[in-house]
Inverse folding.
């Protein structure tokens, strides 16, 4: 099995040699003084800098780097050189996913088995999931799992935006430790509302990132022009939230790199694709996944599918390819290393039938062939997570039905209650309702689609619990609970039976993370996610089957949302309007203020 670099220093040199020695070898290979390790002949090689696609071209690779692109590469080979005859096929740079969330169900080893076959050679992922679960130790353990893999995996330091004051913000020493790591390219998405409402939480961290020469990734969903300008004044460099051509154009005009999402949570590419009619420069536009489910990854592929869809929607093929290669590399200031098939860059490239057909016939990463015709030729490196990674999502005690009681504040038989109402499967709004008091408290009312929603902290104040009410979730019986609740160190549950809510939360805790559906005290669907509370080492097929069972279980409880688990997890999110909950109570995202349950 091929070996892969341990660090970016080695990645940049291609070997363990000093830069000078490595550069000298690359220069000698370009001049034909020493033989190439790999050459590609009879190819059309896309030049992403100029948009040219010359025929009868070749590539010379030495020590994992491109030494030369042009004619006459046959003379740079000897008997030990690996020769790839492209037979007239097109060579393009390996794809870069500039914004994703890899730590969602799959450990890196399993994710890469499916992500590497289609031409993706670099991934930039958020890692805040690890910090919410286990702090710096959780993040560094995950980063260790991403090292020495057949393709490059970079990350952004977590901004730790949260509606919970217990979870918000990253420790200064932790941030400094992460920024000192070469695989950390900047700070991840920081929601504009939080930054403008609580600048004191973020400005010191932003300054550290800027001084490190790294990027500040943005999240500008719903920001007006004026608020967007204020947010950008903090040094934000990108946004992956535009959902229309108009929003994308607005952000491009203000100098942002605009990342167009086409993944499992959001599919914005078709709507944003109208921007191609605006006759503008697209060099600050990028294509990203923003996360992809195991089902979608297994069924449809990864970045190659996104690039193909962009072409099918009418983007010029060169523009579409740039948006998943050079543009992303330039944003992260890595275009001297990745993003192009050019001298001095990593030898990351893909052979495809023609410029409009994104079907990987051969995938090369750092000069090694890692996949051919959809089949992996190398195996991702397994990682043994620290034992502490399997014990992050644990409550100090089992909860019972009484922990989910909503006690009335006085003896009045009817109380005015502030309820989270589901406007869509993700968006909520405030609804004030007059609800009857039964046995001293407010009960769920499934006949009127009123359920309880609870958040239970497992890290900073383990066991601290808040229970509110949600209308429109659809649940008619039992309960669902999960770890990985967005932007918090909480477990989250929805149910119409307090005992079932307790059973579901307890089961998640006993599993050290995961998703559980309970009906009449019995588990009817579950997926244990014991690694940092968000991942499992199970194979892809088992995860897909468990997710299918969970969706079926959710349907049997009455939940009809397209992705019931996502609807559950986002109840704590700090970015999706308008009312959210955490272990401290309800929060109005417009103002950032906590709201009383009883109005």
């Amino acid at each position: 099995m091929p070996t892969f670099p341990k660090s970016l220093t080695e990645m940049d040199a291609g070997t363990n040699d000093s830069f000078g020695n490595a550069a000298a070898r690359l220069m000698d290979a370009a001049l034909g003084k020493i033989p190439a390790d790999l050459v590609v002949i009879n190819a059309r090689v896309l030049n992403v800098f100029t948009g040219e696609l010359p025929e009868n071209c070749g590539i010379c690779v030495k020590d994992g780097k491109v030494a030369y692109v042009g004619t006459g590469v046959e003379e740079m080979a000897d008997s030990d050189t690996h020769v790839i005859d492209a037979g007239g096929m097109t060579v393009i740079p390996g794809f870069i996913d500039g914004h994703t969330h890899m730590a969602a169900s799959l450990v890196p080893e399993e994710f890469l088995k499916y992500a590497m076959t289609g031409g993706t050679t670099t991934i930039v992922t958020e890692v805040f999931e690890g910090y919410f679960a286990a702090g710096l130790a959780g993040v560094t353990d995950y980063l260790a799992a991403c090292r020495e893999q057949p393709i490059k995996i970079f990350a952004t330091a977590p901004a730790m935006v949260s509606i919970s004051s217990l979870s918000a913000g990253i420790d200064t020493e932790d941030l400094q430790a992460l920024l000192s790591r070469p695989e950390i390219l900047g700070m991840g998405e920081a929601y504009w509302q939080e930054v403008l409402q609580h600048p004191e939480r973020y400005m010191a961290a932003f300054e550290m990132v800027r001084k490190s020469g790294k990027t500040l990734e943005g999240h500008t969903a719903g920001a007006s022009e004026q608020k967007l300008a204020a947010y950008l004044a903090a040094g934000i460099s990108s946004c992956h939230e535009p959902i229309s051509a108009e929003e994308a154009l607005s952000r491009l005009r203000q100098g942002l790199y605009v990342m167009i999402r086409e993944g499992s949570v959001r599919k914005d590419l078709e709507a944003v694709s109208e921007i191609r009619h605006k006759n503008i420069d697209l060099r600050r536009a990028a294509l990203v996944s923003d996360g992809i489910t195991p089902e979608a990854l297994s069924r449809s592929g990864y970045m190659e599918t996104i690039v193909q869809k962009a072409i099918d929607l009418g983007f010029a093929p060169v523009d579409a390819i740039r948006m998943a290669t050079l543009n992303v590399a330039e944003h992260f200031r890595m275009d001297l290393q990745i993003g192009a098939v050019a001298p001095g860059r990593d030898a990351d490239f893909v052979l495809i039938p023609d410029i409009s057909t994104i079907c990987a016939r051969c995938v090369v990463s750092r000069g090694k062939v890692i996949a051919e015709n959809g089949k992996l030729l190398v195996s991702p490196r397994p990682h043994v997570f620290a034992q502490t990674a399997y014990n992050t999502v644990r409550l100090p005690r089992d909860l019972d039905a009484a922990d989910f009681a909503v006690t009335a504040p006085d003896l009045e038989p009817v109380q005015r209650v502030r309820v989270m109402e589901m406007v869509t499967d993700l968006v909520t709004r405030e609804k004030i309702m007059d609800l009857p008091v039964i046995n001293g408290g407010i009960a769920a009312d499934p006949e009127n689609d009123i359920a309880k929603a609870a958040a239970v902290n497992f890290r900073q104040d383990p066991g601290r619990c808040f229970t509110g009410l949600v209308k429109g979730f659809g649940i008619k019986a039992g309960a669902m609970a999960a770890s990985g609740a967005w932007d918090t160190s909480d477990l989250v549950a929805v149910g119409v039976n307090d005992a079932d809510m307790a059973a579901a939360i307890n089961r998640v805790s006993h599993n050290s993370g995961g998703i559980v559906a309970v009906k009449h005290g019995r588990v009817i669907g579950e997926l244990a996610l014991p690694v940092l509370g968000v991942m499992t080492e199970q194979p892809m097929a088992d995860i897909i089957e468990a997710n299918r069972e969970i969706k079926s279980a959710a349907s049997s409880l009455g939940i009809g949302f397209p992705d019931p688990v996502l609807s559950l997890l986002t109840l704590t999110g700090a970015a999706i309007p308008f009312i959210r909950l955490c272990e401290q109570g309800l929060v109005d995202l417009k103002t950032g203020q906590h709201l009383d349950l009883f109005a």
